[in-house]
Amino acid sequence: xxxPEYIEIVESVFHKTKHVKTDQFKYVGKRVVRWDxxxxxxxxxxxxxxxxxxxxxPVYVYSVRSKYAHARIKKIDVSDAxxxxxxxxxxxxxxxxxxxxxxxxxxxxxxxxDRKVRYIGDTIxxxxxxxxxxxxxxxxxxxVEYESLPVYLDPLEIVDFETLQEKEHILIHDERxxxxxxxYRIRVGDVEKAFKEASVVVENVYxxxxxxxxxxxxxxxxxxxxxxxSVTIYAKTQCPFEVRRxxxxxxxxxxxxxxxxxxxxxGGFGGAEDVGNxxxxxTALVAxxxxxxxxxxxxxxxxxxSHTKRHSMIAYYKHAASRDGSLLAIEARIVLDTxxxxxLGPFVAWxxxxxxxxxxxxxxxxxDLVNVYTNKIPAGAFRGFGNPQVHFAVExxxxxxxxxxxxxxxxxxLKNVLRNGDYTVHGQLLDHGVGVEEAIKRALELSNYYEKxxxxxxxxxxxxxxxxxxxxxxxxxxxxxxxxxxxxxxxINRDGSITFRSGTTDMGQGSIQSLLNIASExxxxxxxxxxxxxxxxxxVPDSGPTVASRVTVMTGNATLVATYxxxxxxxxxxxxMLNCRSPGDVVIEAPRxxxxxxxxxxxxWRELIEQAFWKGIPLQEYGYFRAPPAxxxxxxxxxxxxxxxxxxxxxxxxxxxxETGLVKVIEAxxxxxxxxxxxxxxxxxxxxxxxxxxxxxALMEDTYYSPDGKILNPNFSTYHIPTALDAPEKIxxxxxxxxxxxxxxxxxxxxxxxxxxxxxxxxxxxxxxLRHKQAKxxxxxxxxxxxxxxxxxxxxxxxx
Amino acid sequence: xxxxMFDLYRPTSLDDAVKFLxxxxxxxxxxxxxxxxxxxxxDGKIKAPKYLVDLAPLKxxxxxxxxxxxxxxxxxxxxxxxxxxxxxxxxxxFAGFRDVWHKFxxxxxxxxxxxGGNIATATDFSDYIVLLLxxxxxxxxxxxxxxxxxxxxxxxxxxxxxxxxPGELIVEVLIPEPPVNASSAFEKFDRRRIxxxxxxxxxxxxxxxxxxxIEARISLDVVREKRIPGRVKLLEDFLKGRELSEELxxxxxxxxxxxxxxxxxxxxxxxxxxxxxxxxxVKRTLLTVGRRLxxx
Amino acid sequence: xxxxxxxxxxxxxRDYELEVPGCERLVYTLRYRLGxxxxxxxxxxxxCGTCIVLVNNExxxxxxTLTARLDGAEVVTIEGITPPGILHAVQVAFIETGGVQCxxxxxxxxxxxxxxxDRYPDPxxxxxxxxxxxxxxxxxxxSLFIMAVKxxxxxxxxxxxxxxxxxxxxxxxxxxxx
Lengths: 800, 296, 178
What we know:
The structure holds three protein chains of three kinds. By secondary structure, chain A is of the alpha+beta class. Chain A folds into three domains: about 5-30 and about 485-625, Aldehyde oxidase/xanthine dehydrogenase, molybdopterin binding domain (Aldehyde Oxidoreductase, domain 4, 2-Layer Sandwich); about 50-150 and about 215-305, Aldehyde Oxidoreductase, domain 3 (Alpha-Beta Complex), CATH 3.90.1170.50; about 310-480 and about 630-795, 2-Layer Sandwich (Aldehyde Oxidoreductase, domain 4). The radius of gyration of chain A is 27 Å and the shape is globular. Chain B has three domains: about 5-55, 2-Layer Sandwich (Uridine Diphospho-n-acetylenolpyruvylglucosamine Reductase, domain 2); about 60-175, Uridine Diphospho-n-acetylenolpyruvylglucosamine Reductase, domain 3; about 180-290, CO dehydrogenase flavoprotein, C-terminal domain (Enolase-like, domain 1, 2-Layer Sandwich), CATH 3.30.390.50. Chain B is globular, with a radius of gyration of 19 Å. By secondary structure, chain B is α+β, with helices and mostly antiparallel strands. In chain B, the strands form four sheets. A five-stranded antiparallel beta sheet of chain B has the order 4-5-10-6-7. In chain B, strands 11-12-13-14 form a four-stranded antiparallel beta sheet. A three-stranded parallel beta sheet of chain B has the order 1-3-2, with helices on one face. In chain B, a hairpin with a 2-residue loop joins strand 6 (about 140-145) and strand 7. Chain C is globular, with a radius of gyration of 17 Å. By secondary structure, chain C is of the alpha+beta class. In chain C, about 60% of the residues are buried. In chain C, strand 3 and strand 4 (about 60) form a beta hairpin. Chains in contact: A-B, A-C, B-C. Chains A and C meet through strand 1, helix 2 and helix 18 of A and helix 2, helix 3, helix 4, helix 5 and helix 6 of C. Strand 1 (about 30) of chain A pairs antiparallel with strand 8 (about 175) of chain C, so a sheet runs across the interface.
């Protein structure tokens, strides 16, 4: 079977350029001022809530939410709310024309609760009024009769940690017959035999928290009913096509009657996936029913309650190694808490399982992972998507193992880390593109690791310093989660300016700049020729979701394909116009176009385009790229889960105050193998920003609940994210470019990898600072809050 | 979330403000910076009053830092930002004021928040209360029955409760002018560096003669039972007359504090840890003052 | 129905005569009455700093400021730190140092940065850092914003305070930097 053209194009460009050093490109790998920088520093109206002023007399939608974390609904009485002044409508589950469900992966989540509520946050009714205040006040008058049920906040109440079997309890999802959402496993080699033969075995239990995205922009959506019965929705969403799918199902309308536009997002990090569907469906429902524009604006508290969190994890790990430092076997039992609804839980569980053994050669592995429901805010996508959780456990294990073996933790990792030609634990051959060893070496160099390690070990007193390393690998894009494709539209206008559209969104990560860099490089035109339009489902084919660190690779490839085809056509025409020996001799350095051997004889880009217009050569192209399907065998956890992996090495240096347990990160070094740097500014910001966010995960962030299931810290003063004073003063960043044959110019993604290795490197550094072998085992939980660390310091008498 | 609805009353004078507050009690509440009050109303923690009495017209009258008749007098409407341009940030006798300032909210908040407002919030994380207690501060109140001066300690009844008569306004903070060879320090720390409540906030004031402690005043965000700042008198009495040293401070905090101080457990952390951190905070503030006075 | 209060405000150089309820917050007035959506509301509790504007030249959280109390005040938002078609050195520095990611914290950061250098023309890195704690950035660009303020200070020292938007676009928009 012949390979699709788009794969041929991407691979041929890779092969043509794989020996070109990045600094020789014109736009790829360069520091570019991003396309929206001026809009952002001038405060232009580019976020969803800013667009409200453009709509005349909208109605405001307020979601009345459950006050119980687990209860059956006996009766909902909206009569008082309906009568409240200013109220134009109250919607309950029975008002939904289509399917009352917004489950992201499985249909387990009603848009509006009808039969039961499963967390404090489930929507019970929508009150619609002429002002947000009136809607909110009327909402207080909705009265609900509940029959309360037991509230489960601990996943170990749902499942037994030893056996991973479900425990007796009142089912949260009785309609599914079980509160186990998914199970995944890896069965490779002979773990029992390996443990018997091992010289050293290290086992421990690890815990990670339900991290909150805490992006600065609370969600907003505006739905406008169109004259033809369709609806246009502006919403804070990372995935406009997913929104369209969800709204179509809820409203019972075909896709083409639903137009979703994603403006700029004030941060997403995975949190603006589910909630985007929810607020779009709610506003669209109301807008079409009342034939008025409908608006939702969330407060900070509503934002925290309504968007998904990171899955918290409890994991048992057992590693075995031989005396010479070879990793022999890994056994793991992992429990993830998906909260009240599945959201992206099935996929998070899968990714966590795939990466559960870390970037190492592992011949024997037995991993069992289970994802369970509880009555907490649903857990879903958050940068890393299950990988930060398992890497925390794995990288702590590697350090503990190294210590038991008496081998330097870096040497131990170097001995076992994946290299070109190795097989992953799933049996996937990585025949190229594994740059982790180089990343390690670079990180050691940049951080001055060995010198610092020696210095820190010699320090005494109440302030201790430690240095720690963590490695990571992160499969790019969605792997076996589903069909993996992306698309862009590139239109060269008659005057030579270019309209660029992609269905992927900008939540700050700036990957659209990567797309422009690729487009400019291929076409030979300055970046300023491009104008970027907002992601709009009506004007570009399904580009897939903006998730999974996939935009640079997948949409980048789509961009590469589109511009490559355009370039080929323009080359042919230009060669004719200029009399070049062959189309391959055409150089485009817009505004000039010339033959490589006759630069003085040039035409202008505008002349070329005008001529193409007259000669009937299409100047527009839809770029499409589809990744080869992934392969996964559920029974054994083997196959080819991801088409490529990003690698990284993170080194953190911390200062621990033994008197208080407070930890300060003083310096960090992050080196990532991203195949090829396309957008240098974006990549550096990922490394730095991902570090700060990972630091929050390691040291200060956790969501807390009252016994009846109410979140206790939905504010910035009670949920601690790093401030300007907390961010380390120095973060060294560098990149390794072990190109991936099917990435644009060899590029790989960085959106999520940039957080995966941070927390374990920090905790490894803290453990190093403690210098007490037993105490190190107990630093097995994040966030390492000062009281937690203090209790360990006190218990083991770690003193001056 | 609470109902965020109220009317404003703009008083023409201090007298007018007091009269309006008294005659509309409890439906009228004064607003200075609003950085605490508006959040309480927004969150539904207090019911929106019918009237907020806007104290802004009184700003000129009630914004000052003066040294007169043996007292440092601070107008209640002096903003936290304005404090930083006064003697309180320049003179070593008031060094603790700089410590509080650097931990107070974030810089932007300091332009709005007032010292009177901080006292009126009356919680364990009203940081200026912690410091002012160590300065033996008194508060001047104005009401319909005239003025009175009350020691800050007595004014604090319980969390968010001051012993105010209906219509009474805080107008001035009075601190007895400290002698030479006196200084203070304040400590506040938590999981991150700023925008924090604090695990155990403490202020210490020492008047030394050489190494000898002439007077010690130590306060904590919570001493026992009530979640309001208070003085740790037993510790102060023990220190009086002794020679300041690291060993003394270590011994005194380790051995004496646990009997005097009792903290609380909540979802953020435990009473045990708060107690341990109280020891550390008191120790550090005492040693910092010692360093500031050149004795340690 | 609550009482309405007459307020005269000068916002971004233009005079407005408004009638607002006592409980209306400045962030609402600026965003929805007057259309200055560059002012953001990230939390409504004075914790995130995205609502910070200058009131009589002082940085304030507009989410905790009542409009009716501001009769006679001068308010400046991100849209008004310069006349139309002009960018301030702080804005140019933010563009050049490349820290802008999602852009939601950016107006607040720029207002705070401007308030800082208006008062202290040569702040230390520590002072800059302390001022910038007024605004939270979840994308994590703090270190780059600190660099941007330092760069703005350099511009101001050379007397370069204002740049035309035209020249900024020509020099910087989608341009490859050094």
